[in-house]
Amino acid sequence: MCAEEARQLNEAFVKHACTGRPFVIAKCAATLDGRIATRTGDSKWITGESARAFVHELRHSVDAVLVGAGTVAADDPF
Question: What is the pTM of this model?
Answer without folding.
Answer: 0.59
